[in-house]
Amino acid sequence: MSASTKSPYEIIVRPIVTEKTVQGGAQNKYTFEVKKTANKYEIAWALEFIQAEARNPINVVAVNTLVVKGTQRRGRFFKRANQGRTSDWKKAIVTLQEGQTIELVEGV
């Protein structure tokens, strides 16, 4: 996979740790919030690069992405005056080879 001009730390924003995503770790699936403009190849490259630096090399088998739409927000007192939205963001579900783990997510 070719390296992009983006830093791997810019592509991977944060791991998403919820009850559902922690259960996915048993099936070698890990969930991350990623930069909205990143594609699947860049996400796989960034994760492999970050884990190689941490001396825990991994092989990404598959990357599934989806865009989570932002929710509508309103003010407390003047409900019509203070309307707005949260930003849309991108989620990536990464599948690793059998027997490989990501330690950052495993410790939770």
TrEMBL record:
Keywords from the UniProt entry: Ribonucleoprotein, Ribosomal protein, RNA-binding, rRNA-binding
The name this protein goes by in its record: Large ribosomal subunit protein uL23
HAMAP family: Ribosomal_uL23_B
GO molecular function terms noted in the UniProt entry: rRNA binding; structural constituent of ribosome
Keyword RNA-binding part of the UniProt annotation: yes
InterPro entries, per the entry: Nucleotide-bd_a/b_plait_sf, Ribosomal_uL23-like, Ribosomal_uL23/eL15/eS24_sf, Ribosomal_uL23_CS
Organism: Capsulimonas corticalis
Cellular component terms (Gene Ontology): ribonucleoprotein complex; ribosome
Pfam families hit by this protein: Ribosomal_L23
Lyase among keywords: no
GO biological process: translation
